[in-house]
Amino acid sequence: MLYDTTPIVKLSVGTPPQLIGLAVDLQMGLIAFLVPNTTDCVPQSNATSAQYNCATDDFCVIMGYFCPAASSTMKSIQPSKSDPEGPVNADVVTVGSQRVDGVHMWLNDISPGEYSRMGISPGSPFLYLMVDQGFINSPSFSLWSYGTPNNQGQLLFGGVNKAMYKGTLQAFPLSGSNNNVNAPIAAIVVESGNSSTAGPTTTRHNLADSTTAVLSTIDIFTFLPNKTVQQIYADLDIAPTFIPSFNASMGIVDCARTQSENRTVSLVIGNVTISVPWSELFIPFEDDTCEFTIVPYMPDLTYGPGSELQIGAAVLQYMYLAVDYDNIYHYSVWGTDPDHHNHGVLANVNFSFKSASRNIRT
């Protein structure tokens, strides 16, 4: 499920260009487009949204769809020997004013749960293709989302925007089996505002030195050790509620509290403190209740959401993130309003999905 914290980048694909929205994904390397389940489709500019089931599909309504039959540059390709199950289609993708040729892509039928995505994890073929064609110097990018006008952010390939952040960039090595983009969490700090009986209170919960969490632009949930989560619940006066349909205890509160109480949750990462208003850490659950999106991770799971420590998109939107896979480092800092950018290829991103009641945790 995507929420309004997931960055959606607008790119053009094919010839003539068709404008499509893609979810930026830090944990996958593939590029995928929604396409109609037919061979005689027409570009969305010449079609009604009712065609091809697009009007009834939330992702398609926001992202649009790609019509391969209408592109003169679409090609069928043979999967590489290193990835025999890889994509069998390639076309032109335009980022800003730069035309990137021969981009390998997946084509996914418009159907529930499918959406277009821009994968920029380690080994992303698209980043290396931009290097090979001379658009950027290294497989790198920077992403900024929060506090920009009109609920928009920026995805800058091959550079950083110095106007977007304060101070110096904090560097961390990529690690883990897949060298995923991750960050070592040193502590969680919970701050509550003034009340009628006392002034503001601040509590700090230190984590083990080995507490490294992957970053996700797709999943809104932040998964932390259970002990730390229970301490956060206590600080925020959240009583865990057992929900039989999920067979789990969840942090459920009246939605009115999320707006009436002045609280902040901060993640300390190296020398950087990422502070998030607690109102940004809830999603609607049911009736007038909301669910807290910092939850215990489940070490018994072998894969999927909750199987590893994670900093979710609700927190990530408050970070300036720069990644250079050649240097094996990524950087994250709190930022300021953007005014300009350095060298690189710029793509604007939108945050268009509205949070909805969560109905899955898979």
From TrEMBL:
SUPFAM superfamilies assigned to the protein according to its UniProt record, in alphabetical order: Acid proteases
Any single biological process term in GO: proteolysis
InterPro entries: Aspartic_peptidase_A1 (IPR001461), PEPTIDASE_A1 (IPR033121), Peptidase_aspartic_dom_sf (IPR021109)
Any one GO MF annotation of this record: aspartic-type endopeptidase activity
Gene3D superfamilies assigned to the protein according to its UniProt record, in alphabetical order: Acid Proteases
Any Pfam family the entry gives: Asp
UniProt domain Peptidase A1: residue ranges: 7-333
Family classification: Belongs to the peptidase A1 family.
PANTHER family reported in the protein's UniProt record: ASPARTIC-TYPE ENDOPEPTIDASE, BETA-SITE APP-CLEAVING ENZYME, ISOFORM A-RELATED
Name this protein carries in UniProt: Peptidase A1 domain-containing protein
